[in-house]
Amino acid sequence: MTNPSPRHIALDTETTGFGAKANKIIEIGALEFDPETGMPTGKTFHTRLNPNMEIHPRATAVHGMKLKDLQHEPLFSHVAEDFLNFIQGSHLVIHNAPFDVSFLDSELSRVNAKPLAHSIASITDTLKMVKTHLSLESYNLDSVADHFGVDRSSRQKHGALIDCEILAMVYPHVQRAANPNKETRKEVDLKALTSQSSQEQIELAKIAKSVICQMSSVKDGIKELIPFDLGENIDSMGLDTAASRQILLAGITSMIEKEQKRYTERVRSLTNQKSMTSDVCTVAFSERNGVNWEAIVKEKLPDLDTKPYEKKTLIMKIIPSANVIVAEATQSEVSPLKPNRP
Predict the structure, then answer these.
(1) Which residues pair with 25 in a beta bridge?
(2) pLDDT at 24 exceeding the cut of 70
(3) What CA–CA distance (Å, rounded) separates 70 from 27?
């Protein structure tokens, strides 16, 4: 019986400066992903930290953070245990691993914890790999992503978690650059499919990936609109409280539905009066898309009705070599994505 492969986790940190002995970590991002496709599993660890020291202006120019932005964030000692539990036994993927590892080891030593190596299975340094196997003008993550055609349009400044997302998508390309003769199972299965796919299908599937990747963070955005805990026990709630919250939720729902209608019309005008909303959602919930988005969404958005999008009208697979999803789809009439309402 073979041992299961360790979880792959992309990891990145942001710091107060550029030397571990004299500086501290102010942000940690860690994202579990499928090493064959670069797609996230939905499991992440992310926190900002209060370093209790000034941040070097050159570092601020990179990540945009100042000490005043972090005064109410936890200390590293408060999150160290949760962080180590998240990465326990994993294979870490880091771009310029010596930098991040030196900072993490320094932080761990301050809380009397063992070095990072005691908690993980192994590390891949993608910076070292691309320098070995590619000839580029620059080897920073942006340049490597651009070389492989990985979309990084959502990144305005360096941030630990967004950098992890980009690194996860870069990783399969780096692996293939290092092992050019190794052909993955998914690539072999999809050779015939690639020649049959239309540009519209490819674009549709790329939209699907983008939309559903954002769904795990939707609940955090909702919290900013709703000033009370979602899913709390309301069995003993009085009429005044329940009624006021019902009115607030109705207002938010109405606002969102109006915005949804505006954007739906815009999508229709861009696609010759054919709405892609239902197709995009159906793509995401296809059984063969390689990622269990349904489980991710149920965890992050438990009130979302996913049943309309589970119709088996679309087959989708991932082609790592092209960094796109190719879909064979039929049109299905389902309502736009929105939460259930009583």
Answers:
(1) 15
(2) yes
(3) 10
Complete DSSP assignment for 210-234: HHHHHHTTHHHHHHHH-SS-TT---
| Structural domain of 290 | 193-329
Residues taking part in catalysis: 158
Q: Do 17 and 100 share a structural domain?
A: yes
Q: How does residue 155 score in pLDDT terms, banded at 50, 70 and 90?
A: low
Q: How far apart are CA 168 and CA 33, in angstroms?
A: 6
Q: In this structure, are 177 and 207 located in the same domain?
A: no
Which among 14, 336, 328, 320 is positioned nearest to 164, based on CA atoms?
Answer: 14
One domain, residues 156 and 29: yes
Q: Which residue in 330, 331, 332, 287 sits closest to 308, CA to CA?
A: 332
Whether 23 and 9 have beta carbons less than 8 Å apart is answered as no
Q: Which H helix or E strand runs over 202?
A: helix 199-215
Instruction: Give the model's confidence band at 336: pLDDT under 50 very low, under 70 low, under 90 confident, else very high.
Output: very low
Rounded distance between C-alpha atoms, residue 38 and residue 10, angstroms: 10
More confident residue, 19 or 321: 19
Strands (E) in 113-158, as ranges, are 122-125
Q: How far is CA 92 from CA 1, 40, 104, 106, in A?
A: 24, 14, 13, 18
d(Cα 115, Cα 105) in Å, to the nearest integer? 5
Task: Verify that 172 and 312 share a domain, yes or no.
Answer: no
CB atoms within 10 A of CB 8: 21
Residue-wise pLDDT tens digits, 265-290: 776 676 655 544 555 555 555 544 44
* Same domain? 216 vs 147: no
Q: Is residue 342 part of a domain?
A: no
Last residue of a domain, one of 131, 158, 182: 182
Helices (H), 271-309: 277-284, 293-300
